[in-house]
Each structure stands twice: as structure tokens, then as C-alpha cells.
Amino acid sequence: HTNSANPCDDGNACTTGDMCSGGSCVGGPPPNCDDGNVCTTDSCDTATGCKHMNNVSSCNDGNACTTNDTCSGGACVGGPPPVCDDGNVCTDDSCDAIQGCLHVNNSNPCSDGDFCTTNDTCSGGACVGGSPPNCSDGNGCTDDLCAPASGCYHANNSDSCNDGSACTTNDTCAGGICSGTALNCNDGNVCTDDSC
Q1: Residue of 169, 173, 146 lying closest to 159 (CA atoms)
Q2: Distinct helix (H) and strand (E) counts, the chain
Q3: Tens-digit pLDDT string for the chain (196 aa)
Q4: What is the DSSP secondary structure assignment for residue 68, as one 8-state letter?
Q5: Distance between CA 121 and CA 123 in Å, rounded?
Q6: Cα separations in angstroms, 78 against 43, 49, 55, 71, 133
């Protein structure tokens, strides 16, 4: 009985290329049981060969619009969507399966937080203040001003003015009101009644 080097089967499903050596069947290298699926745990059973058991590992489903993807039933299942809200009213927030969160500038109405602008509008991803408000109160004895935090206000001044009466002179603003001193109409003649 001369030993051969013929192919053989050692009865172990976890060897390949079995060959006779020294009068016995010697198992070869193990089979490649990797199925390329991260959602299965690959192993080998000596009786049945390669086994692929489903697992619950973390994975990536290839969709940038899912988070915390997890294996289930041998497949990668996407989790909840990412939070794409950037808190900026001047961008339209969305999600692209490849690029992920997108923030596209818009031209919506907005508020820049400045009470001294009106009709604010989004531009270039930021809120841009519009024209100033009309703070005029129609009173020449006040300076019409605007504070960004509170808006229009009116400060009394001491400007010269005209109270509309021809019987006063040196009209001046005081306390937000225009008033003057009485005109001296005395002509020094006792034979005339002086009035205004």
C-alpha cells in the first residue's frame, strides 16, 4: 500500500482542498466565510460549513439623512433623521441623501432686532435692516430720535420757534412747547388804548 497525494475529504466542512499526506487525509485552509455583510456574524460549523447569523451591530446605510443606523434582520436600517435646523430664518434647511444637511439662503422677511429699521429682509443668509421708521411727531420743540433697543423717542429742545401768535416775541421751545414773551404795545400816548 503506497501512500498517495490524491485529493480527499477529511469530513470537516471547515477545510478546503483536502489532500492525502502520509497515508491520511489532511484538511486544507479554511473556507472564506465572509459574506461582505456587516449585519451578519460569519463563522464555520464543521458539519455544515459557513454560517451567517444576523446581528444588531451599528452600521451605515449609506443615507446621509439617517443617524444611528443599526442592523436588523441581516440588513442595515436607518435611524432617525439628523437635526438640520441651523436656527437661521434666512436659510431653508433640508437634507440630501448624499450631502446631508443643506442650508440654502432665502429672501424671506425677518427681524434684525433693531427697532430703527423697517421691512427687514434676508440676504446672503443674514437679516438685513431696511429703511428707518418715521419718528417725526410734527413738533418742532422735540428732537426726533431712534434707539435700536426701543425705537422712536422725542427729546425736548430749546430751539427758537414760532408759536403762531403776533402778540409774543422771542418765542422759544421749553418742555416741548413753543411760547414767547408778551409784545410791549405801549405807545406812550394816554389818549390811545393799546392792545394786541
Answers
A1: 173
A2: 0, 14
A3: 999 999 999 999 999 999 999 999 999 999 999 999 999 999 999 999 999 999 999 999 999 999 999 999 999 999 999 999 999 999 999 999 999 999 999 999 999 999 999 999 999 999 999 999 999 999 999 999 999 999 999 999 999 999 999 999 999 999 999 999 999 999 999 999 999 9
A4: S
A5: 6
A6: 26, 31, 15, 9, 51
